[in-house]
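Weekly structure sync, notes
Attendees: PL (lead), two postdocs, one rotation student
Agenda item 3: pending single-chain targets
PL asked that the sequence for the first pending target be pasted directly into the notes so everyone works from the same version. It is reproduced below exactly as submitted, 229 residues in total.
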Amino acid sequence: QMIDGKRVLGVVPARGGSKGIPRKNLQLVSGKSLLGWTIEVAQQSTLIDYLMVSTEDLEIAEEAKRYGCEVPFLRAAELATDTADAISVPLDAAMRCSGYDLLVLLAPTSPLRISEDIDGAIEKCVSSNAPACVSVCLVEENPYWMFTLGEGDRMIAVAPEIPPRRQELPQAYILNGAVYVARTEWLKREGRFLTPETVAFQMPRSRSLDIDTEADLNRFSRMVGSKLS
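Predicted structure, written out during the meeting:
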């Protein structure tokens, strides 16, 4: 199970509050909570040695345990506010659960990722000898065609030089939020997943849904419904 003798800690961050959708992590889609969708896929990973949910919320802790996932501690309330720094949660888990070489962060807001995405990102991190690996997907709208508006609504190109032909545009990628992997000691030092040394793990757009709004949740419901029927 270990990759190159490295132990992997899997962390599912799930706070009780949420700005966009109330109690988002407990929302049911096809009879399974968003939290449950991510736990089940993470449990199928062949490389995660210890999987845990980080939450301050008792109901979420109970839901995690219903899926057979460990909740080794309840997170401090100040790490679960709207203003709390996102990196504080994996750092908190890394401090409390020591002895792991790699940490993988799996937000419940990316329910379409599969276990191969998780293991693929972990493998990419190790095989690239990189300190971190994050999942990305191709953007639909290329930033080379984008503008900000200056004084008097004058068009200012986001990219300084636009290639004349669409075929010449560099391919652009965006973080899809599904998988974040980092070497634990490096993460504690850097306090972030994204640095110039971070490598990308490419995922298809079809598995890159990031649930932020009711509309996203409805879209996920429809996608799952069509798969199940």
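Discussion points:
- Residues 136 and 175 are 4 Å apart (CA to CA).
- The first strand starts at residue 8 and ends at 13.
Action: rotation student to compare against the earlier draft before next sync.
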